[in-house]
Structures are given as structure tokens and as C-alpha cells.
Design a protein that fits this description.
single chain, two-stranded antiparallel ribbon
Length: 163
């Protein structure tokens, strides 16, 4: 990132003593620090995530980061479903109203993000308990490097596709 010339000037304070604040534009080189194997990272992550989710949701905690990660689960103004931090996310996932679940992934799309991250979009089928007719779902993950050679889930957005 490198600062460039001023982009805005604002005046504040009292009418007698205006102050000038100068803001600088910061541009980021989108090709800087790109994960070269983003597709392999995304594919491996999805395989691992759904295997753990389907077998023991309580073990998903290590994939999120305390006080940083966020989950939107069917979130809308009439039914809040936004959870922040590992504890809140795990509480939500462990208290879902089904005992048995199976994710059937249909498509996975992966793209690199600045800072070495990976954006992963999943569409698939969800079989819960003894249901024979799958529900369609989509889920988006933003993975960020942990600094130890692995990734953690920064953002997780889950939505049933109905209608």
C-alpha cells in the first residue's frame, strides 16, 4: 500500500476556529500477497469442514478465530442470525434442531483475496435426520491465513435456498 495525494479536506470545530483534516488515498495492489494455490486451499477446506460438521459439530471451533470470526446463519431483520466469535458460533451450530446431517456439495468456486485469503462459495444439498428430500443451500467462506501456514474462517454466511 502506498499513500497518494489528498482526496478530501473537511472542516470541523467552531465557526471561529475551523480545523483542516487532510485524508490520503491509500491504494492497495490487488496482486500483492495472493494465495497461489487458492483453489486447492478452498477445495481441501470444504472437504474438511463438511466432514467435521457432519460427524461432530463441536469440533469446528479450531476453524474459527476467537472474537474475530463471524457467522451469518439465515440472518435477516425479522430473525437475527449473526454470531461473532468462536463461542457464539459454536453455540449456534451445536444447537441446530437436527441430530444427523449430511452435506452434499454440488459446486465449489474459489477466488484469491488480497492478503493471502481465499473466498469460497459452495452450493449443495442438505439432508437432515431421516429426510429423503434434500434442502438446497449455499454457503460463503472468507478464509484468512493464520500466520502458521493454515487458514481460519473470518466470515461464514449460510443460507437455505428456498423458493
Amino acid at each position: 500500500m502506498r499513500p497518494q495525494g489528498p482526496i478530501a479536506t473537511s472542516r470541523g470545530g467552531s465557526a471561529a476556529k475551523p480545523s483542516r483534516v487532510q485524508l490520503r488515498r491509500v491504494t492497495m495492489d490487488p496482486s500483492a500477497n495472493i494465495c497461489a494455490n487458492f483453489d486447492a486451499v478452498g477445495q481441501a477446506f470444504i472437504t474438511h469442514y463438511y466432514q467435521v460438521f457432519d460427524n461432530d459439530r463441536s469440533q469446528l471451533g479450531s476453524l474459527y478465530k476467537d472474537e474475530v470470526s463471524m457467522l451469518n446463519f439465515e440472518h435477516n431483520p425479522g430473525r437475527p442470525g449473526q454470531f461473532k466469535g468462536t463461542a457464539q458460533i459454536l453455540e449456534k451450530l451445536q444447537n441446530l434442531p437436527f441430530q444427523k446431517v449430511q452435506h452434499q456439495v454440488v459446486t465449489i468456486d474459489c477466488q484469491p483475496t488480497p492478503g493471502g485469503g481465499v473466498l469460497v462459495v459452495v452450493c449443495g444439498n442438505l439432508l437432515v435426520d431421516e429426510e429423503q428430500i434434500p434442502q438446497k443451500f449455499s454457503q460463503v467462506f472468507q478464509l484468512l491465513p493464520s500466520g502458521t501456514g493454515s487458514f481460519y474462517i473470518f466470515n461464514d454466511v449460510f443460507r437455505l435456498n428456498v423458493g
